[in-house]
Amino acid sequence: MKTLDSNPFTLVLSGGGALGIAHLGVLHDLEQNSIVPQEIVGTSMGGIIGACVAIGLKEAEIYKLIKEFSSVYKWISFSWTGNALIDNCKIEKIFEKIFHDRKMADTAIPLKLIATDLATGEKRVFAQADNVMIKDAILATMAIPGIFDEHLINGKHYGDGFLCENLGINEASFDEVLAVDVVGKHSFNPNLPDNFFKTNNILDMLEKSIRLLIYNQTQTTIRHSDKKITLLEPHTEKYKTFHFHKVDEIRALGLSLRSVELI
Questions:
Q1: Which pairing describes strands 111-117 and 151-153: parallel, antiparallel, or unpaired?
Q2: How far apart are CA 21 and CA 182, in angstroms?
Q3: What is the rounded distance in angstroms from the CA atom of residue 106 to the CA atom of residue 110?
Q4: pLDDT score of 262
Q5: How far is CA 209 from CA 15, 88, 121, 186, 220, in A?
């Protein structure tokens, strides 16, 4: 059993596509124990969920929204121009309905969202001090290159935060950190792919390689951090980053941790 001291803490939620739905299970348990973070840091899917919490939505409300989001036809619009497969027009309308015209300063809990400046490769952290709309910061942090359109903010193009820091521990303001990493040590199968079709093996190897890359990036961050970190790593190895239709199963991965207490 891991414990979380009764000091102010930062909740850090990692990116991971559909794997990030496991964050909901952790949020459910935090709510059940009346544990509220004093700050939220999110990357990509963790940023989307973290932003919802930051404006005051309960886990059940976010769960309902993601269930609706799991119907891909509601948010996928293929792009025939530009640098990405998916046009963000439908996704942007969804975020407009959730966040309206709220800006980064208009949250009940201070929020930080991590993106990557695609011109320089530098990390960009959108926070309260930025006069940026929440929906824009989210569209930046979730913009996986080649999949989602890069997002333009104040003349700069931004892409997914996983390119620089998938688990934003470095951005935590408090010494106590509860970090949920859905691309942690339990996110990849130790065995190599062994499918009948070589194409499937290649795709599986590519996804495993990306997870290993992100995992090693995060481990380096943790090793060099002086924060008191409670790290939760759901067993996401059986799921793909595009398995949005498996909402209930992936959410249950976070519920199964049952590993945070307020003492």
A1: unpaired
A2: 9
A3: 9
A4: 45
A5: 16, 27, 20, 14, 17
Predicted pLDDT of residue 263? 36
pLDDT at 7: 86
User: How many residues are present in the chain?
Assistant: 263
Residue 107: how many CB atoms within 10 A of its CB? 19
* Residues paired with residue 229 on neighbouring β-strands, in sequence order: 177
Has this prediction a pTM greater than 0.85?
A: yes
Half-sphere exposure for 176 (CA within 13 Å, toward CB): 13
DSSP 194: -
Provide the CA 45 distance to its chain's centre, in angstroms: 3
Residues of the chain with confidence (pLDDT) below 70: 1-5, 70-81, 84-85, 193, 196-198, 258-263
What is the C-alpha separation between 145 and 130, in angstroms, rounded?
Answer: 24
Check residue 256 and report its DSSP letter. Answer: T
Tokens of 252: 């249950």
